[in-house]
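Structure first, sequence second, as always.
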């Protein structure tokens, strides 16, 4: 029975087609993975767990509610992008953290937008 089902079947699913829209600006980063190059810690508040693989697209412009990879105090951190009364903010860390204003030359900047999260089960 299974042989009949799979006979002639080709898998049309391509993870590149699903996740990579701008190849030159797309990066894959494992959370709590390669600490030598990227040290991205688990952030349960944002729904990101150790072992998750983040697809980061540097060509995307962040929109309300999107996860972003930000640089804060020279280190990478995951944040949620938000806006209020025309000003842009990042919510990083845990529930109790405050919003960080995005300003030119400020203490925090966006490195890329998280376009997908892959998780092993």
């Amino acid at each position: 029975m299974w042989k009949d089902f799979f006979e002639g079947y080709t898998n049309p699913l391509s993870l590149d087609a699903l996740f990579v829209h701008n190849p030159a600006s797309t990066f894959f980063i494992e959370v709590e993975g390669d600490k030598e190059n990227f040290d991205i810690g688990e952030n349960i508040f944002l729904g990101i767990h150790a072992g998750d693989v983040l697809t980061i697209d540097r060509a995307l412009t962040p929109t309300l509610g999107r996860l972003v990879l930000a640089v804060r105090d020279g280190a990478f951190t995951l944040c949620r992008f938000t806006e209020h009364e025309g000003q842009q903010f990042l919510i990083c860390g845990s529930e109790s953290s405050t919003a960080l204003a995005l300003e030119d030359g400020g203490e925090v900047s966006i490195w890329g937008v998280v376009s997908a999260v892959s998780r092993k089960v």
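Margin note: Residues 17-118 form a domain with the Umud Fragment, subunit A fold (CATH 2.10.109.10).
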